[in-house]
Amino acid sequence: MKKLLTILPLVFLLCFTFSCQQGEEVAEEVGVAPFSDEDMAAIKAIGPALDKANLAGDFDAVVEMMTEDVLLMNPNEQIIQGRANTLEWFNAFKPATFTEHKHELLEVDGYGDIAYARGAYKNAFIFEGIDEPIRGEGKTLLILRKQTDGSWLISRFCWNSDLPLPE
After folding, report:
1. What is the reported pLDDT for 8?
2. By residue range, what is the domain housing residue 55?
3. Is residue 78 included in any domain, yes or no?
4. Looking at the predicted structure, is the pLDDT value of residue 136 above 90?
5. Is 147 helix (H, G, I), strand (E, B) or coil?
6. N or C end of the chain, less CB within 10 A?
7. Mean of the per-residue pLDDT values of the chain
8. What CATH code is carried by the domain that includes residue 101?
9. Strand-by-strand arrangement of the 66-73 sheet
10. Can you tell me the distance from the alpha carbon of 28 to that of 12, in angstroms, rounded to the nearest whole number?
11. Exposed e or buried b for every residue in 70-82, given b needs 16+ CB within 10 A?
12. Handedness of CA 82, 108, 60, 137 (dihedral sign)
């Protein structure tokens, strides 16, 4: 019995190792490219680019980082589909000015032409005539697609707040 308990974990480890290798071999056979350091860097650069564009109030630049068929999944709203509708949603905030915007991508991974990024955000914005900024912080989940030019665009963008609901 002791021999079985000693050998069993080794068998599971070997099975796991070979199954992982087999997946990589299948991906190579069908021509799916591995996720490169360049892909990682390009996706991680999206966080600072979103910060810069939002702080500048340049929502056209924000939406240009998204695919034509993007789905924006905001809390407490219906899904917003497509660049035009997403831009319209962002432009509704034109009376507000971001004073802080930090979107950090904490986990990025992918394979081939699809990737995901889990992130966290903190922001603050003010409306004309209101003294105190409105602050937000929470988490994000992005699905990205690699374009034919090698760039990565956001295909799905979901976010929600970590802050409690106001009473």
Report:
1. 46
2. 35-161
3. yes
4. yes
5. coil
6. C
7. 87
8. 3.10.450.50
9. 80-81, 66-73, 152-161, 134-146, 114-127, 96-111
10. 25
11. bbbeeeeeeebeb
12. positive
> Does residue 7 belong to any structural domain of this protein?
no
In terms of phi and psi (left: phi > 0; alpha: psi -120 to 50; beta: otherwise), the region of 60 is: alpha
Q: Is 112 left (phi over 0), alpha (psi -120 to 50) or beta?
A: left
Mean pLDDT of 25-42: 79
* Residues facing residue 154 across a β-bridge: 66, 144
Per-residue pLDDT reduced to its tens digit, 47-75? 999 999 999 999 999 999 999 999 999 99
> Is the distance from CB of 65 to CB of 156 less than 8 angstroms?
no
Give domain status of residue 24, yes or no: no
- pLDDT of 14: 46
Which residue shows structure tokens 């997946």?
Answer: 23
Dig out the tokens for 68 from the structure: 């034509």
Whether 11 is in a domain gets the answer no
Buried b (16+ CB within 10 A) or exposed e, 128-143: eeeeebeebeeebebb
User: Which residues make beta-bridge pairs with 97?
Assistant: 126
**Residue type at 122?**
K
